[in-house]
Amino acid sequence: DSVFDVADIDVVESEEDGSENRDRSCCHMVRGAWFSNDHGMLHYGLPSPLLDHLRRARNPVLQLYPTITKELLESEAALLGDLISTFRGTMDALVDDGSETGNWDVKIAMEFKALQKRIVSSILAVCNGGLRLLESEFINFT
């Protein structure tokens, strides 16, 4: 396992500027969630820059600190749901094609694909764990 093994995530946002619509994009690098030391509330083992970017896109005025509110929990649950939906599609696209050739380039491509699957699988796992964590916090608001 190497901390330099990453999956690229390109995020494209539509931005309205007067009469023009522009797309703005940025790229985030995501490592396997097993490298993260923080799997708690608001972090979930995911990179903070990615989460902050998605939070601002979803609700630019939402305050994360100092208190946890029902609105914050609902927003976090929706964010994790969006990530699960996105990465489930990514995981489906990474299906094994059964290539068993002896060519070195195919072997390298298959190793890369296997690594990407591990990273995406870890992201799905921490998102699902984050949803369970949020569900336990929702109890405080009922």
Secondary-structure topology with pairs:
Blueprint lengths: L5 E12 L2 E12 L16 H11 L11 H24 L10 H35 L4
Antiparallel strand pairs: 1-2
Helix pairs in contact: 2-3
Characterization of this structure:
The protein has 142 residues and is of the alpha+beta class. The protein has one domain. It has three helices and two strands, in the order ββααα. Strands 1-2 form a two-stranded antiparallel sheet. Helix 2 packs antiparallel against helix 3. It is elongated, with a radius of gyration of 18 Å. It starts with 5 loop residues before the first strand and ends with a helix. 15% of the residues are buried. The mean pLDDT is 79.
Give a short synopsis of this structure:
Helix content is 49%, strand content 17%. By secondary structure, it is α+β, with helices and mostly antiparallel strands. The termini are far apart.
Structural features:
alpha+beta, two-stranded antiparallel sheet, 142 residues, elongated, 2 strands, 3 helices
